[in-house]
Amino acid sequence: MNKLALVSLFAALAAHAAQEIPFAPTITLQGPMQERLEAMVRNGIERTDPRYLALCFRERNESRWWQSEFWGKFMQSAVPLACMGKDRAFTGVVAASVKDVEASQLEDGYIGNYDASRRCGEGWDVWGAKYTMLGLLSWYDGSLAAGAADEASLATCRRLCDYLVSTVGPGAKKKIVSTGFYSGMPSCSVLEPVVMLYNRTKDGKYLKFADEIVRQMKDEKGGPRLFDLAFAGVPVADRSEPARIGDRKTNRNKAYELMSCYQGLLEYYLATGRKDCLDAAVATARDIVTNEINVAGGASAGEFWYDGAKRQHEPWHSQQETCVTITWMRLCAKLLSITGDPAWGDEMEKTFFNAYLASLSPDGSEFAMYTPLDGYRSGGRCHCQMHTNCCNANGARGFLEYLRTCLVADSSGAVVMNHYVSSRAEAVINGSSVKFETHTLYPKLPRVNITYRSENSMEFPLKLRIPAWSARTSVAVNSAKVPNVKPGEYLVIARNWKQGDKIEIDFDLAVKAHENARHVAFTRGPVLLARDSGFADGALDEAVNPSSLKAMVDSFAAVRSERENGISQTVAARLYFTTHPEGYDGALPSLVRFRDYASAAAGWNVNSHCRVWIPEAYRYWTDITHTLP
Hints:
Layout: H1 3-12, E1 17-18, E2 21-22, E3 27-29, H2 31-45, H3 50-53, H4 70-81, H5 88-103, H6 125-145, H7 151-168, H8 185-188, H9 191-201, H10 204-219, H11 228-231, H12 255-272, H13 275-291, H14 308-311, H15 322-339, H16 342-359, E4 374-375, H17 390-394, H18 396-405, E5 407-409, E6 415-417, E7 423-429, E8 432-440, E9 447-452, E10 458-466, E11 474-477, E12 480-481, E13 489-497, E14 502-506, E15 511-515, E16 519-524, E17 527-532, H19 549-558, E18 570-575, E19 590-596, E20 610-611, E21 614-615, H20 620-627
Parallel strand pairs: 6-10
Antiparallel strand pairs: 1-2, 3-7, 4-20, 5-6, 7-8, 8-9, 9-14, 10-13, 11-12, 11-14, 15-16, 16-17, 16-21, 17-19, 17-20, 18-19
Helix pairs in contact: 1-5, 1-6, 4-6, 6-7, 6-9, 9-10, 9-12, 12-13, 12-15, 15-16, 15-18, 16-18
């Protein structure tokens, strides 16, 4: 592919729609969020060398590690987001890395870095092949968008899948659930690119391979059991027998890999219409919301499910792996697209503004591997004797999912606005383009102004997601109030839209207290608040008087957000802390400031701390029964 074709490829990405969600987002951000995105592209994506990530495919001497996932993970965001950057030389490096991967393919179709005696066995070989297929398909879709389809990349992907079919497919000696770790979940998650490959080629052998993977996910006793355990209502943290919790081979509690399997099942549902796949995914995702998702929209400790919603205030090791955060966003995005249930948009928003943005370094150059609710943040360690790790390779995909779901057209012919951010966005309905421009400082401020910018008038319903947390939301079109605005639902405005029509939304950014096991955390709208050592306004481990919670929330409401750069926000409250009540002013309230969790601990070092869950102090004369045996 020549240089002109490369430039054409990336220039055309934003106009291409592949499958259910556009290949690249048809949205241009403005303001602080655009600055964060540009920093991530400039300092993160464009400073990553995909040819370095592809080096491992030449060596083929691995026995247990996961280097082979890095290139494919990176390509899924690098190809769509590179069009937003200005470094055209980078596009050439991406193209060269594709050729490197193609050149590494063996005659039997294998692409990977495992020793011949260990291929598709224990370890992460099939998992790595999944990501290699996803990377090749990302490049193929991008070339297709430019009108110059790179058929070589698709052919390479087909040969790799053919190798998997011959090794772990229908009739093969080896079952796919017997490979890898965690009851075969990492290997079974290859279902996603297998179905995507079938969608692009319509070759029946790939659908048969997908059929067999789904059968083993469902029926094999030693497999993931993604159907019966979901329909029985077994929480994800309890899907392994207690004696096998520490057994890496049979454990079913690995968070990232389990969700990746359900992502594949949703692709399979779209291709086949098998509703039990959708129902199992929905049941599991709802369980994750109830039992695992924390106040930041993140999950996992040590990369496992752990009944985290109840235990999130405890000092867990390796809390909120970024790969888990991103995979949860991807699962919510797919469920939002398929079901049209705005609850999945609420979940995406909560995760994006909190757990996800908290994991992205202030300069956009890297992602934290883990983002604790109490502690400090830092860059992740190197993996697999390479100068990168899984979360850095994966990180930008979270931003991409947010962009892809901001403004979309659904199957009914409606335009759906799921997220509110200063932007110019476009959707296509009935072959016609509709454009909206949004001006807002949301979620720092409650007002969102939206203008219809298409030159031609058009009649269609616009669906606005009204978050469940916004108890009282006001919406007006051309200054006329719209009735029946309900939290947790889409507000449908059907009209003949004319250029310049204006929508004004005012959300209810009330501060709310969330209590859990004698601890309290605060949110303001979708944003989680945290104490920050940078304010130097008291020890972060101070306890608060539980009888003053209402006064604390009222105090929050009385203090306006302070002015800060970017999307960060600070709110202050006069809180009654009781750890040190002695002294002349010990009975007086203390002025304590909270910052949005994503912007807290911004130093990314051991001297920059934040704390979300504030302990509630015990009082002898009211809590004596809690302290005596």
